[in-house]
Amino acid sequence: MSRSPATVLVICGPGNNGGDGLVCARHLKLFGYQPTIYYPKRPNKPLFNALVTQCQKMDIPFLGEMPPEPMLIDELYDLVVDAIFGFSFKGDVREPFRTILSILNGVTVPIASIDIPSGSGSKEVGSGVLPCLEVGT
C-alpha cells in the first residue's frame, strides 16, 4: 500500500455481507487505515442503521456514488474490500451492482472479498469480481 495511512474503499451490498463490510470499515479505522464506504442499497433495518451510525460517528466517509472509472479507484485507494454479495447470493446480478462489478474488474489495486467474490454465484459468465484475497466470516 502506497499511502500512509492506507486508503481503503469498502463497497457494501444490501445483505449481511454489506453489514460485514461496515464492521470491516470500523475495524480498519481503529487500526489506522482510512476507509471510505460506498453503500448504494441500504436496507431499512435497525441492525444496518446502527452499523451506519457507528461508522458515521467514527467519521468514516460515505460516497454518494461509485467512482465511474477503474483508474479513479486505482488513483484514490490502496485496497478495495468487496462486501457486496456473500455465500447466499443466487440469481442474476442487477443494477447498480452489475455496473459496480464491471468497474471493479478493471481496477489494478488489490481486492479483498468477504466470503466469496461477489457475483461468482451468478449464472452470468464473467460477472464475478476477481479478488486477490478471500476472507471468510
**Count of structural domains:** 1
Radius of gyration: 14 Å
Q: Percent helix among the residues?
A: 25-40%
Named CATH topology: Rossmann fold
What structural category do the secondary elements indicate? alpha/beta
Instruction: Please count the helical segments.
Output: 4
EC number: 5.1.99.6
Pfam families: YjeF_N (PF03853)
GO molecular function, one term: metal ion binding
Protein name: NAD(P)H-hydrate epimerase
What's the gist of this structure?
Keywords: Isomerase, Metal-binding, Mitochondrion, NAD, NADP, Nucleotide-binding, Potassium, Secreted, Transit peptide. This protein has about 140 residues and is α/β, with parallel strands linked by helices. Helix content is about 30%, strand content about 20%.
Account of the 3D structure:
The chain is α/β, with parallel strands linked by helices. The chain has one domain (7-135): Rossmann fold (3-Layer(aba) Sandwich), CATH 3.40.50.10260. The chain has helices at 16-30, 46-57, 70-76, 97-104, and strands at residues 7-12, 34-38, 62-63, 79-83, 111-114, 133-135. Strands 3-2-1-4-5-6 form a six-stranded parallel beta sheet, with helices on both faces. Helix 1 runs parallel beside helix 2 (46-57). The radius of gyration is 14 Å and the shape is globular. The mean pLDDT is 88. Homodimer. Interacts with APOA1 and APOA2.
